[in-house]
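Progress report, Aim 2. The chain analyzed during this reporting quarter is listed below.
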Amino acid sequence: MSQILNQIHSSDIKDILENSLNGIRPGPDDCIRLLESDDVHLMGLTAGTLTRKKFGQKASFVNNIILNYTNVCITDCKFCAFYRPPNHEESYTLGLDEIELRIKTAWDLFKIRQVLIQGGHNPDLGIEYYENSFKMIRKKFPQVGVHGLSVSEIDTIAKVEKSSTKEVLSRLKDAGLQSLPGAGAEILNDQVKEIISPKKIMSKEWLDIMEEAHTLQIPSSATMMYGHVESNKQIAEHFEKIVHLQEKTNGFMAFIPWSFEPNNTVMQKDGTITSGAGGYQLLKMIAISRLVFDGLISHIQSSWLTNGVGMAQLALQYGADDFGGTLIGEEVVSCTGSRSTELTSRQIIDSIHQIGFEVEERDNFYQTVCNYQIP
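Predicted structure tokens for the chain:
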């Protein structure tokens, strides 16, 4: 500890880092100072120390697939290269048999422990489509966790059914939904949302539906998509809103900051954003996430999907404790053409071992499936 204190002694954010080491999380103003600071190495040193104090020299991952069940969407988000409007020649929706086949193949080949189910906001799909899918998965693949649907998809289902989002969540939980991903948050500031996703639910609705899920004992992840039109103040606001909800419900299992990938999106075509935020910003966001959520949200994910394996290895030293998933079958980020969007479990294990960390394979709820010692 004394070595770290010596290194941060001359930093302009030393008070924030010292407080973090003493269990005092940064507030909104501190968060803005961290975002404006160039002392990313010291942030990472502090965040990494907090992470290893909690988890040791170890990182986890989940063997999973992404089931992008439909690309039909009516919200036209400017940051998305995946969606297609209804009746488009490239639009699709998977049937129940195809969903079963994909999961069975993944179970037989990879022994997956989670299926991450996300798609577009498809107005032609009623709640029975999702109920039948979840019931089938839980019945035929009981060892595979159902981690599915952004809260904006929940909102769309409620509109289709002319029902409440809480009723939709309750029915989906009864059908087999076990946890929610954090997608749809982007930046929890309506000025940002009006620019990048004006047809999607606004910040309060995202938080309200998440709170409903948590009160129904449906845990979730929280996310932040940074690197587009947001300001540092708006990022700090996003962090603070997640903090307040977690203090109220304790329903978030993990936080995942990920960078916007502009390729093949409207925002690239209209010149709003032409390139990604890059690895330096990733490490800053990972470190700040650990400092902000230390003792509040246990798990910070490395975000390899949008930044690559090498940056994910660094992220595990800057405050992340979870590598993420294998993401077999991923289609959303792959539509940007930015990089490979799949990894095998062996590739993840080897990548974590390369930085001297032991590996824990986990399930949907961050419970240990097995451990892989360094050879």
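DSSP finds 16 helices and ten strands in the chain. Residues 26-372 form a domain with the TIM Barrel fold (CATH 3.20.20.70). These observations will guide the mutagenesis work planned for the next reporting period.
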